[in-house]
Amino acid sequence: MNAIDFSPLFRTAIGFDRLARLMDTARSGADAGGYPPYNIEKTSDDSYVLTMAVAGFAEADLDITAHQNTLTVVGRAQAAPDETRRFLHRGIAGRGFERRFVLADHIVVSGAKLENGLLHIALRHEVPEALKPRQIPVQGSRPAALPEAAPQAA
After folding, report:
1. pTM
2. Were 74 and a residue from 27, 63, 69, 147 both cysteine, which residue would form a disulfide, CB within 3.0 to 4.6 Å?
């Protein structure tokens, strides 16, 4: 698959160079497979929950890292199965994984919990005060002093 050239879009847009990186990441992420399965839920205008099915993993087996607009969830592989056990069907994967999610600007991880084999990661959109819109007062200029009228000659 060929790379998409976004350069015509950037002629009049400033600061959108991350769009090309985001598209490349999305394209390569499609090849990542579906393990472990996950949901992304929007719970309010500024909050989300990422839920991953991580059956068989304990808290100590999971690492969650948020760095430079990327959320990475890593599950360390389970120990080798006990050789004395004989499975007729083995459908619960215990293999290690690494999932990456691209986060929009100002998305922060506000917490994570493991409950009933599901890892819930809470995310919030928090715009820093310095970046929020602010009202700029308009000051009028003082009128320039009018020249005094010259005395009229009589």
Report:
1. 0.66
2. 63
User: b/e map of 116-145 (b: 16 or more CB within 10 Å)?
Assistant: eeebebebeeeeeeeeeeeeeeeeeeeeee
Q: Are 78 and 94 in contact (CB under 8 A)?
A: yes
DSSP 8-state class, residue 13: -
Band (134; pLDDT cuts 50, 70, 90): confident
Higher model confidence: residue 82 or residue 70? Answer: 70
143 vs 97: which has the higher pLDDT: 97
pLDDT of residue 105: 87
DSSP-derived secondary structure for 21-82: HHHHHHHHHGGG---S-EEEEEEETTEEEEEEE-TT--GGGEEEEEETTEEEEEEPPPPPPP
Given a cut of 60, whether residue 1 has pLDDT beyond it is no
Question: Quick check: 73 and 64 in contact, CB under 8 A?
Answer: yes
CA proximity to 120, closest of 65, 48, 27, 52: 52
CA distance 25 to 5: 15
